[in-house]
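seq as requested:
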Amino acid sequence: QVQLVESGGGLVQAGGSLRLSCAASGIFFSRNAMSWYRQAPGKQRSLVAIISSLRSTKYADSVEGRFTISRDDVKNTVYLQMNDLKPEDTAVYYCHANDYGTTYWGQGTQVTVSS
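struct tokens:
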């Protein structure tokens, strides 16, 4: 059974930091690219950051330079370090994996940034 379990969300003031974690089980973690998406109220879910199995990374323009995605293939965990948070970063953040052509999502973790 595949599980992606996010943690680390919360309420933070603008300019603050949070680190999200996503613990994966049931997938061939080290072989997969892992990514973070987010969905704000009334908006579509959008890609925030992706890290390949070889640790190459890509970011949405809106978070470039503020967010860092990383992975630990021993712990089967992907992280999203979020610095200099802004109110527009408020959203539910989801962990995503595509394993053997099947897409998996975590349950999401709420990030709220107050101004």
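The mean pLDDT is 96.
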